[in-house]
Write a structure and sequence with these properties.
With about 325 residues, the chain is α/β, with parallel strands linked by helices. The protein has two domains: about 30-125 and about 250-320, 3-Layer(aba) Sandwich (D-Maltodextrin-Binding Protein, domain 2), CATH 3.40.190.150; about 130-240, D-Maltodextrin-Binding Protein, domain 2. It contains eleven helices and ten strands. Strands 1, 2, 3, 4, 5, 6, 7, 8, 9 and 10 form a ten-stranded mixed beta sheet that branches. Helix 1 packs across helix 9. The longest helix is centred in the first third of the chain and has 24 residues, at about 5-25.
């Protein structure tokens, strides 16, 4: 390339960058953005989807809407988005379970969780709280581990079902703490928590968002959080890793668009979601639910998700989870 051509290219580069930025800033949806939730209204994924919708409604002329397309552990909603037009108007509110766990559990998914989607935003991370019924003879995590080691299989743990995040949290804990629980698998986290409060199960690993009400009402005893560090919302509750080195379990919720969605649309939606997490009302709600706000870029989420797939596959292997 001649020197004049090099200089011309260098001079044009900032203008091209500004043009790309302008494209992102100029993209605006021409109708409501749909956020597809593959689970029932009222659950943690649905709650997060509605907070995302609130952020997008504040950013764009049309109000964002949440659609619950329930069934097959989230696969029905995820497939719908994979088959939707890649125009920036349809997103899936994805969880670790629906986007990563299902890939390890199901042999014949009707979509590819990586190739059929474009990462938009890792919105929040969610830690789990290990809670016990007050009758359990363990006032701390150290005491629970000691009791479980002395009485293999005596402690029963309620989960939201085989293959659920609660199941994986418990299985990973057993593996690292060298204890054995008896698993009682329910059809969802709510009935597991109901039976914990009633004393029909001993412990539950439950998302903080689904546990905090019972904990604050002193209906259950909090023994640990499963994040790498103590929660800023619950600083008096130890991290499980303080007793079981190396133990950490967190799930996440984010947004994916269909593969092929234009980059300006992806970037603009991602920016709107990140800005939403800076809104005091949304942020306060996120923190109250026990979530860690993230608001990543699309590139950061894509990198995170690629690393997440083998990690989750190993969790599935350790848990022994199998589909009936």
């Amino acid at each position: 390339m001649k020197r004049r051509e090099v200089l011309s290219a260098l001079a044009a580069a900032p203008m091209m960058a500004r043009g790309a930025g302008a494209q992102t800033a100029d993209w605006v949806p021409n109708r409501p953005i749909r956020l597809i939730v593959g689970f029932a209204a009222g659950g943690s994924t649905d709650t997060t989807g509605r907070l995302m919708a609130q952020a997008l409604t504040a950013a764009f002329p049309h109000p964002a809407v949440v659609e619950n397309r329930v069934g097959a552990a989230g696969n029905i909603g995820t497939e719908h988005v994979a088959r939707s037009a890649p125009d920036g108007h349809t997103l899936v509110v994805a969880s670790m379970g629906s986007q990563a766990v299902n890939a390890a559990l199901y042999n014949n998914l009707p979509f590819d969780p990586v190739k059929d989607f474009t990462a938009v935003s890792l919105f929040v991370k969610s830690s789990t709280m290990l809670v016990a019924h007050p009758s359990v003879p363990a006032g701390s995590l150290q005491e629970l581990v000691a009791y479980a080691r002395a009485n293999p299989g005596r402690v029963n743990v309620g989960t939201a079902g085989a293959g659920s995040s609660q199941h994986f949290a418990a299985a990973q804990f057993e593996h690292l703490a060298k204890v054995q629980f008896t698993h009682i698998n329910y059809r969802g986290g709510a009935p597991a928590m109901t039976d914990l409060v009633a004393g029909r199960v001993d412990i539950v690993f439950s998302p903080i968002v689904e546990t905090v009400q019972q904990f604050r009402a002193n209906q259950v005893r909090a023994l640990a959080v499963t994040s790498a560090r103590r929660s800023s919302e619950f600083p008096d509750i130890p991290a499980a890793s303080e007793v079981v080195p190396g133990y950490e379990f967190s799930s996440w919720l984010g947004a994916f668009a269909p593969a092929g969605t234009p980059a300006p649309a992806v970037q603009r939606i991602s920016q709107a979601l990140a800005n939403g997490l800076r809104d005091p009302q949304i942020r306060e709600r996120i923190l109250a639910l026990g979530y860690e706000p993230i608001g990543s870029t699309p590139e950061e989420f894509a990198t995170f998700f690629r690393a997440e797939m083998p990690r989750v596959a190993e969790l599935v292997r350790i848990s022994g989870a199998k589909l009936d």
